[in-house]
Amino acid sequence: EAVFSASLLQSSVLFVLCLCVSDIQCHDWGVWSEGSVRVYDGEVAYLYCPLFSYPTLYSYSQTQNSSLSLLWYRHTHTHELEQPINLKLHTLHKDREYLWIQPASAQDAGLYICMLRYDLFRRDRELKGDDLVIYRMMEPYTGLYTCVVSYQMNGRTLQFTRNINVIAVVPDVGSKVPIILNPASDQIYTVTLGDTVTLSCRVHLPHLYEEKQHIWWTIDNKTVEQLADPRFSALEDTLVSYDYGDELKERVLNVMDFSADDLQREFNCSARNSRGFNTSRAVLKTEPYVPTLELGCGLGVTLALMLMMFVIYHVFWLELLLLYRSWFGSDERYTDDKQYDVYISYARNSEEEEFVLSTLRRVLETEFGYSVCIFDRDSLPGGTITDDTLRFVGQSRRLVVVVSPCSAVRGTQALLELQAGLTSMLHGGSLRVVLIQFKPVRRKSWVKELRRARLALTLIRWKGEKSAPLSSRKNIKNINIFGFYFEVIYFNVMIMIY
Ligand SMILES: *[C@@H]1O[C@H](CO)[C@@H](O)[C@H](O)[C@H]1NC(C)=O
Ligand SMILES: *[C@@H]1O[C@H](CO)[C@@H](O)[C@H](O)[C@H]1NC(C)=O
Ligand SMILES: *[C@@H]1O[C@H](CO)[C@@H](O)[C@H](O)[C@H]1NC(C)=O
Ligand SMILES: *[C@@H]1O[C@H](CO)[C@@H](O)[C@H](O)[C@H]1NC(C)=O
Predict the structure, then answer these.
(1) Are residue 235 and residue 339 in the same domain, yes or no?
(2) Closest atom of ligand 1 to CA, residue 62
(3) Atom of ligand 4 nearest to the CA of 270
(4) 174 in a structural domain
(5) Same domain, yes or no: 10 and 149
(6) Which of 82, 97, 352, 417 is catalytic?
(7) How far apart are the CA of 199 and the centre of ligand 3, in A?
(8) Start and end of every Ig-like domain (predicted)?
(9) What is the percent of the chain where pLDDT is above 90?
C-alpha cells in the first residue's frame, strides 16, 4: 500500500489554443480535469491533447496542412512560466496528438499544456538538414538563434551551443552610393568672422555588408590632416540614426578664429564606399555686421539725453517759459489799446494791503516790468468810484483778485472790482481773471460771485513765508494747468494767467 501511494503519479493536462505567432491572442480553453493521468513509477504513460477531442475545432490532419503546429509545455515548480517540453529527452516522445512518457518517473508529475499555434515559421522559415532557411525575412524573425549540436562519445551524450544574432537590413537593391544631405546644394552656412565656426556634414550611408564607409571634410581639396593647421579640426563621425542597416552619420568640422581669407576657401564634405563617391561644397556667408556695441551706445546716449531733457524740463520749466517769453514773447502793448497789464483787486485796510502794495506790486512792476494798476494809487481824486473802477478794469488785460476773509464783502470796492472783472470776462472781453488766496478762507463765507468764479478759475494759494523766496517752487503743485494758453508771472507765488 505504502509503495503504491508513493509511486502513484498524477498529472493533469491543461490545454490552450493559440492562434497567433506570438502569444498576443491566445484563447485559453482552461483545465481539462478528466484528462488527468495516473501512472505507476517506471511505467509508460501517454497524454492526449484534448483540443482534438472536439472535431468541430481541429482534427490533427488539418493541422498538418495548415500552418498550425502542436506544442507541448509544462508547468514546473522551478519556473514561473510554463516551459516547452524538451523532446530531446529520451523519455519524452511526441506522436501526433499524443505525448508519450516512457518511462514516467516522479519528476514527470505536473501540469502539462498543449497548444496549437499558427506558426509562420513553417511558411517562411524551414529547417533543411542542419540549416535553418529563412525564405522571407521579417521583423519578428530578428533575434538570437541558438544551434545545439549533440553527439555520442564513449556512450555519453555531449553537446555544444552556438548563438547567432539575426538582424534585419534593407534589401540590396538600388543605388548604394552615399547621399550627402548636408551641405545641401541650396544650403548656406552663416559664419561669424573671428568666431569658431562649426560646419556639420550629414551623410546617408546605405547598408552594405561588412564595409567601412568614409566621410571626411576637405579644405581646398586638402584633408584636415594634409592641411595640418591647428585652427582646423574634424571630430569623429557620429551615428545620428540607424534604420535597418542604413545609417545617417554626421561629421563636424570646427574652424577656430574664422578669418576673411577662410571665406574664399572651398569647404567640401565627401563620402565614399565601394559603390561610389559623392562630394558637396558648403556655401559660406558672413553674418551681416551688426555693430551691437555702437548701436547700444548710441541708443543709450539718446535715452540718457532724453531723460536729462525730461528732468531739466520738469525742474526748470518755469525758467524755460520765462526765457521763452523774454525772447519771443510779443509786447502786449502793441496788441491792444489797453493801458495796464494787471489790475490788482484786494480788500482795503487789511493784512493783504501790505502784501499787495509791497510784495506783489514790487515783483510785478520791478522784477517783471508789468504795468500794474492799483486803484487807490492810480485813480485821480474827484471821480466816481464806480465809474473809475469799471474804467480801470476795462483798461487792464488781467485782473488779479486777492481773496481773503475780508475781501469781497458786500458793498466794498473789492466786490465791485470782482463784479466788473467777471462781467467783462463773461461778455467776451479780453480780460483774464486770476485768483490768489492770500489766507485760507472758508468757502461758505465767500460771496456768490466769488464762488462762481472759483469754479471756472484757478486759485493760487499764497503760503506766506514759504512762498516768499523767488526760487520757491513749492507752489508749482498748486497750479492747475487747465487753460491752453498760459503765461506765468514769476512771483513768490505762481500766477497763472489765461
Ligand atoms: C490535407 O492534405 C491531405 C493531402 O496531403 C488531403 O488529403 C486532406 O484532405 C487535407 N486536409 C485538409 C483539411 O485540408
Ligand atoms: C550622390 O550620388 C547619388 C548617385 O550617384 C546621387 O543620386 C545623389 O544625388 C548624390 N548626392 C549628392 C549630395 O551629391
Ligand atoms: C582633389 O585632390 C585629389 C588628389 O588629392 C585629386 O585626385 C582630385 O582631382 C582633386 N579634385 C579637384 C576638384 O581638384
Ligand atoms: C566640392 O563640391 C562641389 C559640389 O558641391 C564640386 O563641384 C567640387 O568639385 C568639389 N571640390 C572638390 C575639391 O572636391
Answers:
(1) no
(2) 13
(3) 14
(4) no
(5) no
(6) 417
(7) 21
(8) 41-128, 178-285
(9) 22
Say which residues have a Cβ less than 8 Å from residue 128's Cβ, sequence separation at least 6: none
Asked if residue 147 and residue 222 are part of one domain, the reply reads no
Out of 189-203, 364-378, 484-498, give the one with best mean pLDDT: 189-203
Does the CB atom of residue 62 touch ligand 1 within 6 A? yes
Is residue 65 in contact with ligand 1, taking CB distance under 6 Å? yes
Residues 65 and 134 in one domain: no
Q: Whose CA is nearest to atom 11 of ligand 2?
A: 179
* Sequence-ordered list of residues with C-beta below 8 angstroms from that of 264, at least 6 positions apart, any chain: none
- Within 6 A (CB) of ligand 2 lie 175, 177, 179-180, 276, 278, 280
The answer on 472 and 363 residing in a single domain is yes
Identify the band that residue 494 occupies on the pLDDT scale cut at 50, 70 and 90: very low
Shared-domain flag, residues 17 and 90: yes
> pTM for the complete prediction?
0.44
Nearest ligand, measured from the Cα of 219: 4
What CATH number is associated with residue 195? 2.60.40.10
Give the Cα-Cα-Cα angle 265, 267, 246 (nearest 5 degrees): 175
pLDDT tens digits along 114-152: 887 766 655 677 778 888 888 878 787 888 888 888 899
Same domain for 357 and 241: no
Give the domain extent around 447. 330-497
Using the mean position of ligand 1's atoms as its centre, give its distance from the Cα of residue 97 in Å.
17
Residues in the chain: 498
Rounded distance between C-alpha atoms, residue 2 and residue 7, angstroms? 9
> Of the ligands numbered here, which is closest to the C-alpha atom of 277?
2
Residue to substitute in 224, 281, 283, 284 for testing ligand 4 pocket (most ligand atoms within 8 angstroms of CB) = 281
So what's the pLDDT on residue 349? Answer: 76
Catalytic-residue membership of 449 = no
Cα angle at 347 between 343 and 352, to 5 degrees?
Answer: 90
Give a yes or no: residue 244 inside a domain. yes
217 sits in which H/E element? strand 214-219
Is 328's pLDDT higher than 80? no
Instruction: Give the long-range contacts of residues 472-479, CB within 8 A, separation 24 or more.
Output: 473/318, 476/318
Most confident of 52-61, 317-326, 430-439: 430-439
